[in-house]
Amino acid sequence: MQITGQAVSRTCAICDRSLLQGEQAVRYAPDGGEFVDVCPLCQEIAAEYGWVKEGSPTSPTVPVQRRRRRGLLASIFAPLQSAPEETVASEPILRRLSDPELATVEAADLFNASDYRRTIGGVAKSLGEPRASILPLSGVNQELVITIAWDITWYQYRVSPESAQPVKLEARGHELGELDGSFQAWNAKIQPDGRIVPQIARL
Q: Quick one: DSSP state of residue 152?
């Protein structure tokens, strides 16, 4: 059976996952512009972003500017009751942590403030709780890698605290065997909303 180029190149506009042949995607228009494919796992996220579903006669129910809030601005302008959820550890606990533990907590906070947290939360609704790890990379840049994995798919994010874009999708795949063993030292938990929490004894 011949596979067309279109089938190979289709990806979800939210999680960047390559769509399987025959997988039913729904088309949405971000900002009312050109339509893009969204996989079944991310359709709730697209609706929450306020994207317009193809064929829908209604306007977005969620303001588009809401999805543009990220990072520090999100924590500044978010409702007061959500502010404590933005930080993995409080100041008294942070003072007792070692430098590597502090770096791990900072990486978790940066990830939790990004839009990727929402993506992981959406996938977890369908696939259940994943395994997760936060691994510092060797080098002077103090970068870390967050790996989040289920049995049938995994995502890997590079966290660069000093970068203008501190969290980036580094890689994704479908088999745990594709991951180096060092990334499979599961030392973090994923909460139902997609937040990552390092497993540090003093937290």
A: S
| Contact yes or no for 113/71 (Cβ under 8 A) | yes
36-78 per-position pLDDT tens digit: 898 888 888 887 777 888 877 654 444 434 444 444 444 444 4
- pLDDT 10s digits, 92-112: 777 888 888 999 999 999 999
Residue spans of beta strands (DSSP E) within the chain? 26-29, 36-38, 52-53, 131-136, 144-149, 154-159, 167-173, 188-190, 196-198
Question: First CA to last CA across the chain, in angstroms?
Answer: 54
Token reading at 7: 């089938």
Distance CA 138, CA 181 (A): 16
Please give the model's pTM, rounded to 2 decimal places.
Answer: 0.62
Please count the other Cβ atoms lying within 10 Å of the Cβ belonging to residue 134. 26
Contact (Cβ atoms closer than 8 angstroms) between residue 70 and residue 165: no
Chain position carrying tokens 């279109």: 6
The domain segmentation of the chain, as residue ranges, is: 5-66, 87-198
pLDDT at 78: 46
User: What tokens were used for 177?
Assistant: 């065997």
CA distances (Å), origin 190, targets 1, 65, 67, 118, 170:
40, 27, 21, 12, 19
